[in-house]
Amino acid sequence: MTRNGDVHSLRRSRLGLNFAVMSIFSSPLLVAAVVLTTPLSAMSVTTAVEVTPFADIPNVTVVSYDVAGRNPAAIRRSIDAERPTDPNDRIRVDGLSHYEFHWRWHRNGEGTCAAAPEDVLFSATVTAPRLMDDDASPKLHEQFDRYLHSLLVHEDGHIRYAWNHRGDIAAAINAATCATADTAARAAVRAIAEHDIAYDKATRHGTSTILPFG
Ligand SMILES: [Zn+2]
What we know:
This protein has four helices and six strands; from the N terminus they run ββαββββααα. It has helices at 72-82, 138-164, 167-175, 181-203; strands at residues 44-45, 60-67, 96-103, 106-107, 113-114, 120-131.
């Protein structure tokens, strides 16, 4: 943030094609934000998944929903009962990724507006099941962990694409005028979000790579 510059930030859900501006403050500080639609109540933030495929990407949190059962079929029933709904197509899925970009730009002396790479902030959550049943055998836990890993690899495909394209947002701002910078940034985010839909279509929500469980 520069002292006299305009600063915009925006939270964006990965499906969030419908933006809701929560608050706008007049210059010099302008803030726009988006209401999140992912139902996170009744879920807990956990670090139980110790090694994730996206461990190298900063600000990614695993949000677990608890499942239980003493055999794969029982655990599958538990997953089916608790799992989230993908807001893009209303399909219930074992895992769900959600990311947000916040951005801002600086107005310089020549009346142009610019964003540096560090002006785009990224954060994400990955919702995934956590096997709670202590009575489940070690073998069952191992089977669950293999399934969970393959699920997280699919989610990594969502998260990593967005992370790798974060520079598109600053580039869009830098190619725009001060008046169109925010619109350009939103368009860049929408283009990134199109990958999520295409990726889920191509992989049938990961069915082609996620190990079947239960
Ligand atoms: Zn997916």
